[in-house]
Design goal:
The protein has 2 helices and no strands. It is mostly helical. It has a domain at about 30-110.
Length: about 130
């Protein structure tokens, strides 16, 4: 019975993690598209500023999600060994989100170089 209870907790946790990761992926896609539209108007100089704002803003979002996710389990569960288990699961979740951010940022940076920087070099006339 005890192991079934732990199994149910872990399964609900992984379902919530997959939902949150999908939600974060949607947010990354949304901000990516929004910033691509801004880059179309502002070109290279302003786009580099937006890249910095974009990365800092995503880090702030991830820290907020990490803190909410971590303290949620401190409120819901009161056993010490469960604190340790969910602490490590939260750390793993946070690392996965950071990897997701790095992949999305790398993809966005390559798209930015391909569409905007190379486009400006191709159309520049001497």
């Amino acid at each position: 019975m005890f192991f079934f209870f732990i199994y149910q907790i872990l399964m609900s946790l992984f379902q919530n993690i997959s939902f949150l990761v999908n939600f974060i992926d949607f947010l990354i896609y949304f901000f990516q598209q929004f910033i691509c539209h801004l880059n179309f108007y502002f070109r290279i100089f302003y786009a580099m500023k937006i890249l910095v704002i974009y990365s800092e803003f995503l880090v702030i979002i991830y820290v907020i999600f990490f803190l909410l996710f971590f303290f949620l389990f401190f409120i819901l569960y009161s056993k010490f060994f469960i604190y340790i288990a969910f602490f490590w699961l939260t750390i793993i979740y946070f690392v996965c989100l950071l990897l997701l951010q790095m992949l999305a940022f790398f993809k966005f940076f390559l798209t930015f170089i391909n569409q905007y920087l190379l486009w400006d070099f191709k159309t520049t006339r001497i």
